[in-house]
């Protein structure tokens, strides 16, 4: 684990970035954190990243309107917000020693997680693993694998 450089009243404070997408794999990671005896005042930032369509589709392909894309993006934001709030409630109820915040960011989860971990100065990133096979990883890409390869801090991948 990287040296904890964050202090609270002269005591070092650990900072954890927890990425969630609302899947059962993310819920496993949330419960894993909730049940651990972290030091008091450990900071956990719950991050929900969501992809947006309106920026990608500047033209109207195959009759899909900008209004449709905007509605899709709004729903994606609301879903990400719901996932982050749900994770925060679980952590706050099960582990009151944690200082929990939430953040919702638009963009590719792989890059959003890495960027936000640096901004937050995370000591640890925790992500759930979807357990993709080789073909699925090739086609879809693995967020957890990409984060583990490129993070500047420790990464824990929680499996179901």
From TrEMBL:
It holds the Pfam family Usp. SUPFAM superfamilies: Adenine nucleotide alpha hydrolases-like. Transmembrane segments: none annotated. Belongs to the universal stress protein A family. The lineage of its organism: Bacteria, Pseudomonadati, Bacteroidota, Flavobacteriia, Flavobacteriales. This is Universal stress protein. InterPro entries: Rossmann-like_a/b/a_fold, Universal_stress_UspA, USP_A, UspA. Residues 14-159 form the UspA domain.
């Amino acid at each position: 684990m990287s040296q904890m450089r964050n202090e609270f009243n002269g005591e070092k404070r650990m900072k954890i970035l927890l990425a969630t997408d609302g899947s059962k794999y993310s819920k496993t990671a949330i419960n894993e954190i909730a049940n651990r005896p972290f030091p008091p005042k450990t900071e956990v930032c719950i991050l929900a990243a969501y992809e947006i369509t309106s920026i990608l589709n500047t033209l109207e392909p195959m009759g899909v309107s900008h209004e449709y894309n905007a509605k899709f993006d709004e729903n994606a934001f609301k879903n990400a917000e719901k996932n982050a709030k749900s994770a925060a409630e679980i952590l706050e109820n099960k582990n009151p020693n944690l200082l929990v915040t939430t953040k919702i960011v638009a963009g590719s989860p792989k890059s959003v997680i890495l960027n936000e971990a640096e901004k937050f100065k995370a000591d640890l990133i925790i992500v759930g693993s979807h357990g993709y096979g080789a073909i699925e990883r090739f086609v879809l890409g693995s967020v957890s694998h990409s984060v583990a390869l490129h993070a500047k801090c420790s990464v824990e991948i929680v499996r179901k």
